[in-house]
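B., you asked whether I could sanity-check this one before it goes into the benchmark set. Here's the sequence:
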Amino acid sequence: MTRFLVDAHLPFRLVRLLREHGQDVIHTSELPKGNATPDEEINALSLREERVVVTKDADFVQSLILQGKPYKLLLISTGNISNQALEDLFVEHLEVLCELLKTYHYVELGREEILAHL
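And here's what the prediction gave me:
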């Protein structure tokens, strides 16, 4: 089981899907400040609870590289994509993503490829 923290830029239905597949997931909308939670607080929670931040926001990439936070990062780099297509992509690649996140701190999920960065 992987522990995820899904950012505001992604739909809550992704959280439900990941939970249905046995993952420990929270969405920023469930935090005290909801989707207005600042990135710094998201990073702190990620580090404290060893959660992988799932986001489309490239600011987290800079933060990871420059400051070593969040704990780990799953960047969704699909461009505009329907919620259903995003869910299908996750279902198709969830096992691989979870395995990669055991080793790598930064994984990128695109429409056609998955990139793992140290």
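One thing to flag: Strands lie at 3-6, 24-27, 52-55, 72-76, 106-109, 114-117. Otherwise nothing jumped out at me.
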